[in-house]
C-alpha cells in the first residue's frame, strides 16, 4: 500500500507540474495580446467558421454553457477583438 501512495504522489506531482508548464506555454501567445486562452479559442472558432456561427455551436464545442460563451464574447467586444453586426 505504501508503494501505491508513493507512486500516486509522484505521478500527481509530475502531472500537475507538467500540466502547469504546458498551460503556460499555450497561454503565452494569447496573454501577449491581453486575452485569455479561452478568449483566443473563441476567436479561433469564429474565424474558422467563415460565416455565421451560433453561441450554442461554440458552447458545445467547448463543453460549456451558452452563457459562459456569451460572457467571454462580451469581454472580446469590450477589448475590440470583435465587432458586433448592425
From TrEMBL:
InterPro entries: HTH_MarR-typ, WH-like_DNA-bd_sf, WH_DNA-bd_sf
Coiled-coil intervals: none
Pfam families for this protein: MarR_2
Domain of life: Bacteria
A molecular function (GO) term: DNA-binding transcription factor activity
Domain HTH marR-type residue range list: 33-82
UniProt-recorded name of the protein: Transcription regulator
Species the sequence originates in: Lactiplantibacillus pentosus DSM 20314
Amino acid at each position: 500500500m505504501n508503494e501505491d501512495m508513493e507512486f500516486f504522489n509522484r505521478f500527481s506531482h509530475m502531472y500537475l507540474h507538467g500540466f502547469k508548464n504546458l498551460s503556460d506555454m499555450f497561454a503565452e501567445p494569447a496573454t501577449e495580446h491581453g486575452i485569455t486562452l479561452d478568449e483566443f479559442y473563441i476567436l479561433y472558432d469564429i474565424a474558422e467558421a467563415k460565416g455565421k456561427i451560433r453561441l450554442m455551436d461554440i458552447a458545445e464545442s467547448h463543453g460549456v454553457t451558452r452563457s459562459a460563451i456569451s460572457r467571454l464574447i462580451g469581454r472580446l467586444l469590450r477589448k475590440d477583438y470583435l465587432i458586433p453586426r448592425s
